[in-house]
Amino acid sequence: MPEPYQFQIFRCKGFCPVCVGIDTSQTVKILKEIYPDLDSEKAIMGSLVFCIHHKQGCKWSDELRKLKAHLNTCKHDAAACPNKCGSQIPRIMMTDHLQYTCTQRRAKCEFCNSEFSGQGLEEHAGTCSQEPIYCEAKCGVRVLRGRMSMHKNKDCAKRLRRCAHCQREFSADTLNLHGASCPRAPIPCPQRCDVAPIARADMEAHLRDECKALAVACTFKEAGCRFKGPRHLLESHLESNAAAHLSLMVALAGRQGQQIQMLKNAVAKLSTNYTGTLLWKITDWSAKMAEAKSKDGLELVSPPFFTSQYGYKLQASMFLNGNGPGEGTHVSVYIKVLPGEYDALLKWPFSHSITFTLFEQGVPNGQGGVAESFVPDPSWENFQRPSLEPDQLGFGFPRFISHELLNRRPFVKEDTVFLRVKVDPSKIVAV
């Protein structure tokens, strides 16, 4: 045993009140049976001991014979609850027990002042109708529990309310904001016509098609008519000004035609080839060949192209069934010089070499084909400065490729033929 529990005459055998917590008189009786010697008894009862509650904080220590009397007043020793709830409570905790935890205590609810036993108060807590609690809808308001149902139905800013016009539901604090934009809310006509209030969503159609007070422009406004007045006067205006409107429309059509032509010219200029090389893709070859064989002198012409931005303007042409010596047996190709915007600044006659190439398609070892070139003779009329006459003569090869060779080798694929016309860039005259 620890040193404080060792006596002078004998060591503790497990019978002291410190060890077993039994009544001191019972301890003395047991000791008398074991140690009938009065001197020994006196020595034992005079031994120094600590309170059995020293670990709970009691600082008492004295002779063993005084332990019982101390325990009757020790604040750490357990005593029966005076309310007879059946609990053994340390004296130091008795006040709190009687006030807060005793099931037989009498207490009043702080909200409704009703008196309950301890257990009844615990059951009452959380159900008291007079207790203020925050609204369950999280509107931020504290309301007595008994009035919560009324608050949620009548006063809560977060309760759901139905719009009287569109029948959609909104929280009460946003309903007014919705009303300012509700598409079905009736509003008066801004032109103050005699029609009853109209749904906001229908107002635009009313102003456009029905409102008699709205000032409308003439339907020929884009043509230049400046009439603007009440809708009911528009019909009479149209009847009385039919001739004037017709004149305005004719003038408008003329202006639009000029604009269309300007746009066409701009588009054509953007799509013009200024590289000096034309790659001409001819589709529907079979149909065009059949047409060429059935019509004499049928000529296909390419889009115009230029040797440079300010250079010569050229155009290629093709006779699928041949022309001149090649008629009926060959494909003929020609080049002609067209009148250009900058001809006055160029050197004449045209003297750059030109090469025609008809490509084979799908050749495994690279691009193959048939090519013919020539350098214009300065004396040839075809390459002098062109006049504005549309029938300017062309120059080329009437027997460029035979029909037999054209069909034997892969010049035609997917009913398409590719012909390249290239001007030698090394001989282009720069200005």
TrEMBL record:
PROSITE patterns: MATH, ZF_TRAF. It holds the Pfam family TRAF-mep_MATH. It comes from the Eukaryota. It is found in: Cytoplasm. Residues 275-423 form the MATH domain. GO terms for cellular component: cytoplasm. One of its GO terms (biological process) is regulation of apoptotic process. Residues 69-122, 124-175, 178-235 form the TRAF-type domain. A zinc finger (TRAF-type) spans 69-122, 124-175, 178-235. Keywords: Cytoplasm, Metal-binding, Repeat, Zinc, Zinc-finger. Coiled coil: none annotated. GO terms for molecular function: tumor necrosis factor receptor binding; ubiquitin protein ligase binding; zinc ion binding. This is TNF receptor-associated factor 4. It comes from Hermetia illucens.
